[in-house]
Structure formats: C-alpha cells, structure tokens
Amino acid sequence: MPDRQHPSSARRPRPPPGRQRGWPLAAALLRGWLPAVLPSSCALCGAGCAGAVCPACQASYLAAACARCPCCANPVAAHDARRRCAPCLQHRPRFDATVCAADYAAPLDQLVLRLKFGGELALAPWCAQAMLAALRAGGIELPNLLCPVPLGRLRLIGRGYNQALEIARPLARALGIPLFARLAIRAIETEAQSSVAPAARRGNIRNAFVLAPATLAMVRGQHIGVVDDVMTSGATLDELAGLFKRHGAARVTNLVFARTPPH
Asked: Which of 41, 60, 69, 221 is deepest in the core (most CB within 10 A)?
C-alpha cells in the first residue's frame, strides 16, 4: 500500500519561494561561486576575463583615440581636433557635438551587431563604460538629461528591446543624469536606415519623430544627450536634434558607441 501523507502535514502551508529558509544564503553563494564555476570569455578574442571584453582588446580597440571633429566625430588631422570639419562647416548639423568610443570597424562592428540583432544585452553595459571613458577623455560639457534614439513600435516588438535604451540605462546611472526613455517617439515606421541608400536617408527619416506631449516642458532650455549604438550618416541624429531644437532645446550632444568612418 502506498504511503499516505499525514493530514496535519497536508494542511501545513509551504513558504513562498522567496521566503524559504536558506534561500538568501544560497543566492549569495551562487553570486560568489558562479563567476568561478562559469567564467566569462572576451566577446572579441575569447580569452577568459571578468567582463564582456578583456583588458588587452580594450587597449587595442578603444585606447588609441584619434583626433575627431567635435561636431560629427569623424576623424580629422590632429591640429584640427578643436575645429569643425569642412563638411560640418558647409552643411551645419542641427546637433552641437558628438562623442564616440570607437570606429565602427572590425572587430567592434561584429560586437555591435551581436548586441543589436543577437540579443547579447550583456554587451550594452560594456558599450556604456567605453562611452563614459570617451566622455571623460573629451572633457565636454555633460547633458542635463539623456534620451535614447527610439525604435518604431513594430521593430521594437520584433526585436524585443531597444539597444540604444539598453546602453543609455547604465550610462545614465554612471553619469548621474536622468534618463527619459520616451522623450521622443518614432511616429512613422520608416525603413531601416542601413537598407536605404546614403543619399536617401535624410528623406527616409524626415518627420519620423515627435515629442511625447507630457515632455514638452522637459526640453525647453535643456542640454539633451541623445544615445545610440552607431552613427553612420548622422541623418537620424540630425532629425532628432532638429526636433529638440524646434521645441526650445539649448544644446544637443550625440553620445554614440561607434562612428562609421567616412569613405
């Protein structure tokens, strides 16, 4: 005959999982032992390391910062680093400055694609850390608030996250700056800029963004930092800067992880 449960024990309520005896201790042990049992490896070279990218790769791809135009962050000659480049003088962007951590080139381009399309969200805090170092090295005026480049609704549903927001969260915490995830809204579902010819990108993104009605007062007179993973033509960031400037923003600075070098 099979054993039967004693009636008194059947009526005894079980503690919820979060309150089981020993659970806090087990969680603490897991946090302490998991890094040793399951060590992480560098996303670029595969060597064992404590973070997403090993110190050697960081030194190789992030430390050797070149002189850049203070407005668009394209590489310039060393003696021109404090002046706007010729394209920015000829066609003045609506944003005021751009800070980037690296060029969008091998092997970092693959790292960005893994974050953007592969769901490797653990790379976002590392990108934010690299951007923080670039900000400190540049010594620029910090924005009053941060805003990620918004995704369209359909693209956000398909991807499940906004990589710009995933980078902006740890960056905002590190800088001590408020983050407004929906300061701007993508009102028009545009084609992905990467699939549009460079000459057509400004037209593709024109009037794609609007301000959330409740945020109008937050923009006026403010220095806004716009966060994105990659800056290529700059059309998307210029469109956002124009939106903020039309509603009274005093200054707009782009904070991007990677900048596509000019051809």
From this structure: 69
Between CA 124 and CA 111 the distance in angstroms is: 10
- Contact between 236 and 211 under an 8 Å Cβ cutoff? The reply is no
Where helices occur in 163-247 by DSSP H, the ranges are 163-175, 201-205, 216-219, 235-246
Q: What stretches of 107-219 adopt beta strand conformation (E)?
A: 145-148, 184-186, 209-211
Q: If we measure between CA atoms, which residue out of 70, 129, 113, 131 comes closest to residue 95? A: 70
State whether residue 186 is helix, strand or coil. strand
Residues sharing a CB contact under 8 Å with residue 242, sequence separation 6 or more, in sequence order: 94
Could you tell me if 102 and 62 are in contact, meaning their C-beta atoms sit under 8 angstroms apart?
A: yes
Enclosing H/E stretch for 9: helix 7-11
d(CA 253, CA 97): 5
Nearest partner of 175 among 123, 127, 112, 133, judged by Cα? 133
Residue 255 has pLDDT above 90, yes or no: yes
E strands, the chain, are 97-103, 145-148, 184-186, 209-211, 223-231, 251-259
**Residue listed under structure tokens 């951590």:** 101
Residue with the larger pLDDT of the pair 77 and 96: 96
Q: Residue 162 in contact with residue 151, Cβ under 8 Å?
A: yes
pLDDT in tens, 149-176: 999 999 999 999 999 999 999 999 999 9
User: Measured between alpha carbons, how far is 137 from 227 in angstroms, rounded to an integer?
Assistant: 18
At 63 the pLDDT is: 56
Burial (CB count within 10 angstroms: exposed 0-12, middle 13-18, buried 19+), residue 171: buried
Beta-bridged to residue 75, according to DSSP, are 68
Rg, Å, the chain Cα set = 23
C-alpha dist (Å) from residue 7 to 1, 11, 12, 219: 17, 6, 9, 65
